[in-house]
Specification:
The complex is a heterodimer.
Chain A lengths: L1 H30 L6 H14 L5 H22 L9 H23 L4 E2 L9 E4 L2 E4 H23 L1 H11 L1 H6 L4 H27 L1 E2 L5 H14 L4 H21 L8 H15 L15
Antiparallel strand pairs in A: 1-4, 2-3
Helix pairs in contact in A: 1-5, 1-6, 1-8, 1-9, 1-10, 2-3, 2-4, 2-8, 2-9, 3-8, 5-6, 5-8, 6-8, 9-10
Chain B lengths: L1 H4 L1 H27 L3 H27 L7 H15 L2 H7 L5 H4 L5 H23 L4 H21 L1 H4 L14 H20 L1 H11 L1 H6 L4 H27 L9 H14 L4 H22 L15 H16 L15 H18 L1
Helix pairs in contact in B: 2-10, 3-10, 3-13, 3-14, 3-15, 4-7, 4-8, 4-13, 7-13, 10-13, 11-13, 14-15, 14-16, 15-16
Classes of the chains: A mainly alpha, B mainly alpha.
């Protein structure tokens, strides 16, 4: 029973991480930007949920999604649009700068103190099924992640814009040559990542109940790791990486001896460096990411 | 051509750009020393940050491989220095569980700084083994991972670091001129390395990695050399940081400081030593002025009330603008040099080539 319970927790955490990672992977695939600001898109959406305290839940949810998409698209239009073709280092530093800008905006508006909310706090109650005790939010996370992943798969495989997106991710120049409009496809990529950030923000608020302007850091670091494990530029890899990381995190939590427990993150991120050393393109790289020299 | 054969002239020519940084910096420091104690403290802080910027330049600027993880070495330098210099009586109180040899050794600032540099260099040598094989995006992510690993360990190794709380009791004996001396040593070291064989090879690999390898440059080895040297510089900066503030915690050495130093380096000009120094000065002054306004104090009798967090926003916007409009920074990543006929001719020729390539 305990094992089954841990597996469910693992799937739920993994689903959350997969959503974080997908947001990074969608943008990386098309624009080649490791979007450090993605975590702060999430934090921004989460703050909007807080600001909308008191309105019907459905409006809060809508507000978070709109906020995520809006900030992501604004970032693309306002900053990244002007840096097409810059080298990866410059793009990463640029994303770093955007992250700080969003963080300081949040500090300016909401202050740097921790704020707490009761939004969705009734989801923290456990649900008893036989001997199993599952927290509602874990169940909700699994369902939401499933819906998002399914929806994204449909979008990418069944709609013209999704096909264009995948084409641009595979070979940007070639896609442009056959008539894919680059600005539009970039905006769609950022909008999708913003939508994922909005969902991530909602789940973040409900799961933690508290927020600070730096709340965006943890999700983006998790997403980095998941994307690296899964292979940069590969969407299915990002999902696999998210679930693998979520599972590993929960497993380490359960299996590590008490006195090593605090060093879980150190172990996890050392593993990341080791993986990168032997597989710089990730464990499951997409075909076009292999070295071409 | 003469300079090739006459070591004296060659040496002077090599030393001139460095003197052009170190001497004006001394004048600036002398000006700051005329102010009050708060002014001197701000000046020391700026010099500490400058050492970090120069240390980061020594790796990132010369090799072209980005790193967000260098602040980890600052952390290690700070803790090493603190463990050697907190007075023994205080130490038994703040860190009761220290191993014996650490509980009974007390050294001067200079000695502690040297040890901090060595420890940070040793750690960076260890880290360099896997990390120097990476470049581009993978290098960026791995360097974040390094920062997180060190933060996680310093936050939890309570026996050695006092844990997540603030470690207090480090003597605040770093004077303005002491900080200047450290900065000058680090700047000269960076300049000497930049002109050394290894530095030049590394620069070649930055411009074109494949071509550099083709002419026999062992890129990974040269990167390791620069990484260890810059690690040592970060260790020096850490020791200075500890003796500047007297107390610090693990989270001092995380994203905020990383961001500040990256901003300094890029605003000044990523690929030149002059850029690192100029960027550190400009950003320090900017942050100081904005911080005073945020806290309601006047600067030059001018008081503009700013909300908290405003200076970060300014830094972020300036960084974005520099990256988009002037990616080589305010100095255009150039070093100081004597004006000479030969160089003017060379520059004219370069411009012509560039024009022809465009046409």
């Amino acid at each position: 029973m305990i094992v089954l319970q841990n597996i469910i927790t693992g799937i739920s955490v993994g689903g959350l991480y997969a959503l974080y990672a997908l947001g990074i992977a969608v943008v990386y695939g098309v624009a080649g930007i490791i979007n450090f600001a993605h975590g702060y898109f999430i934090a921004f959406a989460a703050y909007v949920v807080l600001a909308l305290a008191g309105v019907p839940v459905i409006l809060s949810i809508l507000g978070a999604l709109v906020a995520g998409v809006a900030i992501a698209v604004a970032t693309e239009r306002g900053v990244f649009q002007f840096a097409r073709g810059a080298d990866p280092g410059t793009l990463l530093v640029l994303a770093f700068a955007v992250a700080l800008a969003i963080k300081s905006l949040l500090t300016l508006v909401a202050g740097s103190d921790t704020v707490s909310t009761s939004f969705g706090s009734n989801l923290a109650k456990p649900l008893q099924i036989g001997g199993l005790s599952i927290v509602w939010i874990d169940l909700v996370t699994i369902i939401v992640a499933g819906v998002m992943l399914g929806g994204l798969a449909l979008l990418l495989n069944r709609t013209p814009v999704g096909v264009q997106l995948r084409a641009a991710a595979q070979d940007f120049t070639m896609a442009r040559l056959v008539g894919v409009r680059s600005n539009r496809v970039m905006m769609v990529a950022f909008a999708v990542s913003g939508l994922l950030a909005g969902v991530g923000g909602l789940l973040l608020v409900v799961r933690s109940g508290t927020l600070t302007p730096t709340s965006g850091l943890q999700p983006v670091l998790i997403a980095f790791v998941a994307v690296v494990i899964g292979g940069l530029g590969s969407l299915s890899g990002a999902v696999a990486g998210g679930f693998l990381l979520g599972g590993t995190t929960v497993a380490l939590q359960v299996l590590l001896p008490e006195n090593i427990q605090p060093y879980r993150d150190a172990i996890l991120y050392t593993l990341v460096i080791v993986i990168l050393t032997f597989r710089p393109q990730g464990l499951l790289p997409s075909a076009n990411e292999r070295s071409r020299v | 051509m003469n300079s090739r054969h006459n070591p004296l002239i060659g040496g002077l020519k090599a030393a001139a750009p460095t003197a052009g940084i170190v001497v004006p910096l001394a004048v600036l420091v002398a000006l700051v020393s005329l102010g009050d104690q708060a002014m001197a403290d701000a000046g020391i802080g700026a010099l500490v940050d400058m050492v970090m910027a120069v240390g980061l330049f020594t790796f990132w600027g010369i090799s072209g491989v980005l790193s967000f993880g260098h602040i980890a070495f600052v952390s290690i330098g700070a803790y090493t220095s603190a463990l050697l210099t907190i007075p023994l009586t205080t130490r038994a109180f703040v860190l009761p569980a220290l191993p014996k040899f650490l509980a009974n050794t007390e050294t001067s600032f200079v000695m502690a700084t040297i040890v901090a540099a060595v420890v940070a260099a040793a750690f960076s040598a260890l880290v360099a083994i896997p990390m120097m094989r990476l470049s581009g995006d993978a290098a960026g992510i791995a360097s974040f991972a390094l920062l997180i690993v060190v933060l996680n360990v310093t936050s939890n190794w309570t026996q050695l670091t006092g844990g997540l709380g603030t470690l207090t009791g480090v003597p605040t004996d770093l004077t303005l001129w002491g900080a200047y001396a450290c900065a000058a040593v680090v700047i000269i070291a960076a300049a000497v390395y930049g002109r050394s064989r290894s530095g030049r090879r590394l620069r070649a690999s930055r411009e074109d990695e494949v071509a550099a390898q083709a002419v026999g440059v062992k890129v990974h080895r040269e990167r390791r050399v620069a990484f260890v040297l810059s690690g040592a510089m970060m260790g020096v900066a850490g020791s200075m940081y500890a003796h500047w503030l007297g107390s610090f915690g693990p989270t001092d050495f995380y994203m905020d400081l990383t961001f500040l130093i990256v901003v300094m380096l890029i605003i000044g000009g990523l690929r030149s030593l002059l850029g690192a120094v100029v960027g550190a000065i400009i950003v320090s002054v900017l942050v100081w002025v904005l911080a005073r306004w945020e806290s309601g104090q006047p600067v030059a009798f001018l008081s503009i009330p700013l909300p908290l967090g405003f200076s970060d926003l300014v830094l972020a916007v300036v960084l974005v603008l520099i990256l988009l409009r002037r990616p080589d920074g305010l100095t255009r990543s150039r070093e100081l040099s004597w004006p000479s006929r030969k160089r003017r001719l060379q520059e004219a020729a370069n411009a012509e080539v560039a024009e022809r390539e465009l046409a």
